[in-house]
Amino acid sequence: MPVVALITPEEKFAVGRKLDNIFADPSLKGYRIIGDRGLFDDLRGREDNDISNPKEPRVWRLLLERGGWIYLFRALPPNAKLDELPSVLAIQESEKGHIIIRSPEVSKTTSP
């Protein structure tokens, strides 16, 4: 599965890092939740790839693009248990557009 970078308009997306300030959490004003709040909390602040710890790398991969939806998942670490399954993010494509970058491997550049 390819490594992915998804850039989308912020008013359509409750998670993700701002490109001009990756340390600022996105505003949750105007969003509501039903279900497991912990799933959302586990994702928040971990939206970017991080390969600094080879035992616990965080790499987002593209699972599927179909019917106006993009499905992403965080790849499991090399030492994952056989019964461990990743969560999948389903993102509706925006009428304003988005950018999706696919790559067979993680970039070698480091981000701030």
Question: Would you summarize the structure shown here?
Answer:
The protein is mainly beta.
Entry keywords:
mainly beta; 1 helix; globular
Overview of this structure, please?
- This protein has one helix at 37-43, and strands at 3-7, 60-66, 69-74, 88-92, 99-103.
- The chain has one domain (3-103).
- By secondary structure, it is mainly beta.
- The longest helix is centred in the middle third of the chain and has 7 residues, at 37-43.
- It contains one helix and five strands.
Count of separate structural domains: 1
Number of helices: 1
From the helix content, strand content and strand pairing, which structural class follows?
mainly beta
Share in β-strands:
25-35%
Helix and strand topology:
Blueprint: E1 3-7, H1 37-43, E2 60-66, E3 69-74, E4 88-92, E5 99-103
Antiparallel strand pairs: 1-5, 2-3, 3-4
